[in-house]
Amino acid sequence: MSDWVEACAAGDIDEEDVMRFDHAGRTFAIYRSPDDEYFATDGLCTHEKVHLADGLVMDDIIECPKHNGRFNYKTGDARGAPVCVNLKTYPVKVDAGKVLIQVG
Amino acid sequence: MIIGAGECGGRAALTLRDLGFEGPVTLIGDEPHLPYERPPLSKEAMASEAPVIKAIASEEFLAERSIRHIHSIRAVAIDRAARAVQLSDGSSVPYDKLLLATGSVPRKLPLPGLGGRCVYLRTFNDALAIRAHLSAGNRVAIIGGGFIGLELAASARKLGAAVTVIEAQPRILMRGVPAEIAEVIHEAHEAEGVSIRTGQGIAAIADKGAKVTITLADGQNIMADLAVIGIGAVPVAALAAEAGLAIDNGIAVDEHLRTADPDIFAAGDCCSFPLAVYGGRRVRLEAWRNAQEQGALAARNMLGADEAHAAVPWFWSDQYGLTLQIAGLSDEGRSVVRRDLDDSAFILFHLAENGRLVAASGIGPGNAVARDIRLAEMLIAKRATPSPEALGSQAVKLKSLLAA
Ligand SMILES: Cc1cc2nc3c(=O)[nH]c(=O)nc-3n(C[C@H](O)[C@H](O)[C@H](O)COP(=O)(O)OP(=O)(O)OC[C@H]3O[C@@H](n4cnc5c(N)ncnc54)[C@H](O)[C@@H]3O)c2cc1C
Ligand code: FES
Prior knowledge:
heterodimer; A: mainly beta; Rieske Iron-sulfur Protein; four-stranded antiparallel sheet; B: alpha/beta; FAD/NAD(P)-binding domain; Enolase-like, domain 1; five-stranded parallel sheet; 24% helix; globular; binds FE2/S2 (inorganic) cluster
């Protein structure tokens, strides 16, 4: 399996918010949920390849900034038109105040 | 059964299946295509080398869900007594519930002399025909400084065509867009080399052979290889009118999107409905998300949900690197508060006399205004009365106002 990559410090993301993380030519979105857990998905919407990190996080939903397509960022499930293709998710862990993601 | 296989009709059909409806679903459209998205037609599709259609669902997807899509055929009459729809191929299809999602069509320019070089943009086929004329060195005249015309102007510039926009009103985007934002868009177009002629009526058009000559009210002539007319849209409501249903700026429906006939619904660009967020003011929207939401709502109500429309209108437009987003209807507002964001993006909040936030209009590069417009939309839906100071200060997070 591929490596764990350090994405940011745990405090870099507010609760119920999202941050963009670029790594090795790819782009990811890292989330901090209202109950203080961290998650990661592909950074681009499956509708028109827009950066999800500009979108709004509400509970476990990330809403795309472009046309308000919705995904559950914990599972990657597409949750509302116009998006119908799920987002890929990545394992995340917090270690010594750092957020690490496993870019598979 | 659904008449009109566009954004709204397509979403309605998919929603019926998502909700577990097992009876037959028939989607009738007069275009030769699968249900597809129109917004890219003036944007990405127009600016690309070979425009591709962005279908809402593939043929397989529709087939898997047993949605019968009849294309290239028009519904010509509704027989309410027999509960059947007559089609242009002479056949007749029975219905239990009927949804009219017939959309809108471009308003025609009421001038003589229009020929093959004066065109409109609504369908994918229109887009292909226009695209064929947009190349470096060609001249395009766009009649009407509304969204579709301006997006098309931006796409035409990307392809190197010379563009003139002619607008009869004193400024572009008169309808629904605050002057401060229209100005930003105006400047962006001029910076990209578009010539914008506002306050200019058209005296005459000569469309002969491969050239169009447009004579403005002040006597000047504008020569073009193609003229695209974008002066608004009119609802497609004749079918409903002939069936005796009420028409009021489109097919008139109630908050459940139902006509006076309990088995017939209408949704999307073709209908006018009471907008609950503004105390039931009757409006007709020409917006993509509305078409989607109303398609889904009509589907739920056809299955007996009895759910009232509650959404806040929302619209976006892309021109060059700029995106504009508007939540709510700004003409409901009496005063304006400006909030500046990073990268010279800004949002105008429109407040009613009683302090209620009724609309928000934002513009900026990329998705700079998206998040705050979305939060504003939720505030509007909540009928919130946030303080003008909080709205105007970038330091105050809109999300915190929502919780308040
Ligand atoms: C170029 C362009 C750009 C746009 N950009 C944006 C944007 O950036 N943002 C935004 O919010 N909105 C935008 N819109 C508006 C948005 O696309 C519409 O609001 C939306 O398509 C409306 O969906 P609808 O299903 O109600 O109607 P339509 O999409 O018009 O679909 C109606 C369909 O019904 C068919 N039909 C009509 N009568 C019959 C009949 N008797 N029998 C069979 N079929 C029939 C029509 O041919 C059509 O295919 C844009 C529109 C255009 C044209
Ligand atoms: S780009 Fe994300 S919903 Fe369209």
